[in-house]
Each structure stands twice: as structure tokens, then as C-alpha cells.
Amino acid sequence: MAINVKDAPFNAKGDGSVDDSAAIQQAINYAKSLTNGTPYKATVYFPAGFYLISTSINLTNASGIWLVGDGGPFFNTSIVGNTGNRAMFDFSGSSYSGCENFSFIAFTGGTANNPSTIGVQFALTNNGGLNCGIKKCYFQMNDVASSNGSLGSIGLLNVRSEEFYVHECLIRANTPLVLSYSSNIALVNANYTAGSAYQTLAAGTGSMGVVNIISTSLQSLERRQPALILNGTNSVNFQGYLSRITATTGSNETAILCATSTTNLNIQANVESFSRLVKVAENSGFENCTLDLVAANATSPSTELIDVTNCIIAGLKARVAQPVASERNRTVITHSYGNGNQQAAGYIVNSEITCLTTPSNTNIISANLLKRATNVSFNTPQPFEKRSGRIRQLTNNAIVAGVVGSLQTITIFQFRDARQATALNNSGFYRIWLDGVIRAGGYGSGKAATLCFQAQLVVNQRYDGVIDPTSVTIITLDQSVSDPAYLNINGMILDVTFANNVGSVIFTPRVSGSGTGEPVYYEGYAELQSDFYINDPVPLM
Hints:
single chain; 541 residues; mainly beta; Pectate Lyase C-like; 30-stranded mixed beta sheet; ten-stranded parallel beta sheet; 4% helix
């Protein structure tokens, strides 16, 4: 049978005006006594009401304590916190414990105004911290920018409590959710050391096992901090929604911050109002992570979507959708150039990046990170991959080159120029392989000519930016002709031209015969290799 906090001898009021801290704590202590050294699991029941507390409720070192509020998943038993920088519920050192059906509301009125800046805390101590969770809870914290080492108000904080879960929660705070492998959370613009009024948190760093967060909404107050901060936590599964409930103050645009190296992160989320989806802290790593994200309704859609500057990225699978057309002209994954044009210090390997709404391949990855890519595929409307130092088209271009008697010079491949025309270290080369077919003749005449070829084009650029003439080698692999007098393919002319930072491979077929008006086609794909100091070329078609 559940322990009711309103029953004697506890006698909590739940009227929003009487301080219920002592009554609730008495009920919790009684529940702890029932579970101490036994397999019994105690449930503490809070009937519907508003429970004002002025001190953090000590749930530390509990084993099998489960707190249950009354009502539905969002509007339910309310804990009104006036505990300052101490959590309303402190589960530090507890195992097999947690709560459900609560609203955690920061106190906002009265003369003794010391509103809570942390909703609920779980943490590892020398006494425990395993298999805890929280579900069907609602958090409404205040905008308190300077609290908690400038993290502001925190909805839910977990410091090394292992095998943790969050189900069906809505959390509104400056920083809605923090998961950390250490009590010290040091960020670029914040430095906070977590603690408990009742226990000493475990020293050093350590694994949190697996963390599962499902059907949960994280909503930041203002542009102060990310909605989700992951500080050294691995094997985190998140499924839900991230956004900002207000966004008039501050400059943060990151929804998910990985503050240190992160592995086995699995995110499936809709992200709204944040311009940047994910940022991985510089000089760290991002390994075997899966990101399945929808980005929409950004308040200032000008940043890159995934920032991995100076990071080692391995085994990443990122799928990004951008349903709002006006927000698509951004780089999906980037390594910052810093001040001016700089080489990427980090790199990306064995990864797959998908964004079918990107308007151009130049938006899928920054050119300096592409240079440092190995075994990476890019799924775009014009897909390509980078393997063994070569960039390869994954589409077969089919282009009409006019008709016999009126042939045209056509562009069969384009790429964004890798060279930096205004930078030093400007020399380099492009090497382009073509594997193509020239086909002439229509279905009506029944006569056709086909020529299969491979070609290599090499272009050198000197230190002063001057481009040498293109060196071209063409090998005819096979040729088939129905009626040479009517239609015959004699060869082709290939060259590389540059204009407006775009390199273009131009193609002119050479066809003879009496079949005036017969169409001529080119079909093929290209591979590209280059060596420039900063960037790789990005294929455009």
C-alpha cells in the first residue's frame, strides 16, 4: 500500500501556502525505513495539490523509493520549489528509485522568495546511483541566467547515475537537461560544480551506462544554453522534441551540445527555433553516433547545422531534413575556417551524411572538412562519395549534345573550385577521370552508333594562381556502329574551364554521316582528385 504524504502522522497540506518540506521528508524517511535491507519497494503517494517546499527533499541513498503524483502526465501534483540552488528532489546516491506524475514549478511569489533553480537531481555517490528514472513529469523553471555557474536554471540534472531513463516529460528551463560524467561541468560560457546538501558526489569521471530518453520535450528559456548538454556521456538514446519557449535574450543557437568526446549517441528529434542542431566541443571526438533530425523554424537560420570543428568524427550517420525552404541554404556539417581560410585540424572517416533538401552539394560539408574525409558518402539530390583520396559521382549524367548537323559543346561535370584565389599556398592540381558513353541515333531510324571511353584530364595551378593548359588522355574502350555511312562517332573534344569559382568539364562530340537530325547523347560519371592546401573540390553535377 502506498504511503500518503497527507495522512497522519505526516499531514502535508498541499495548499501552496504552508511549507510542506518537513511533512514530505517525514514520509520519505518512513519509506526509506521500510526498504532498508529488504527487497520491499516503497511507493510514496502525493494526492493532487500544490506542495510548497523550502528545503530540498532528501531522497539520497534510497533503494526502491518511488514517488507518485496524482493526475495526468503534465497537469498533476505540483511541487512548488523555493529551495534556491538546491534541487527540489535530490536522488543522489539512490538506486531503483524515481518519480512520476509531478509538476516541478519554481516558486515566484511571497516574501521569502528563493525560487528553485534545479528541478530534480540524480547522481552517483559511494552509496549508489543505479537504475533510476523519471516519467510523465512537467518542469517549469524560471529564467535565472546567473545561477548554477551561468548554466541558468536546470530542469533535470544527472551526474553519473547509471542506467537512467526519462519517459514522457516536458522540461522548460534555461538548460532543460544535463547529463554529465563528472560533477564539474566546464563549458565555454559556464562553469558549474554539482553538489548535494546531503551527500558527497562521486569524484572523477565515469560511465553512465545506457541512458534512454523517449517521448520527451526539452524547451529552453531564452537563448542562453542548449536544450540538451551531454558532458562525457556515452550510449545516450534520445527520441523527442527540442525547442525554445522564449528566445529574446542571449546568443546561443545550439540545441544539443556534446561538451566532451561522445560515443554511441542516438538522437531522433524535431528541432525548432535553434539554428544549430549539434555542436561537438573542439579537440574532442564523435564516434559511432546516429543523428536523425528535422530542423525547422529557426529564429536566425544562418549557422551551420552540425559543427565538428577540430574534432575526430568516426562512424557518423547523420540524416537531416529541412522542411522550410528558406532555411536550407546552410552547411549541414562543417569544420570552421576560423580567422580566414584554415585547414581542418580534425577529420571525418567511415561516415554517411544525408540531406535530400540541400540545394547544392556545397551545402552538405565544408570544403576544408571534405579534404580531411576518408570513406564518407553524401546522400544529396546529386550524391557523391570520398574514398581513397578520390571524390566520386554516384549519379549517371545523361545529357543531350544536340543533333547531327547541329552538335553542341555541353558541360558534363562541374565542381566547386578548391583553390583559394586570394590566399597564399595557392598551387595545386586537379585530376579528373571520366567513364562515359557517347550514343547517337534515335528509336525511329533503328540505326545507332555507340562509343564507350575513359578519359583523364589534369590541370595544374601555379603558385601565382595561373592555370596551365589541360592535359587530356582519352582511351576508346569499345565502339559499335550500325551503318557508318549514315551515323558514326569519330571521337570527342574534352577540356576544363574555370569561371566564378566553378570548374567545368566541357565536351564536344565528333559525329559524321548522313543522318542529319539524329540525336547525340552523353552518359557517364566522374571521379575527382586534387591537392590544394585547404579545400577539396565539391562536385556539383
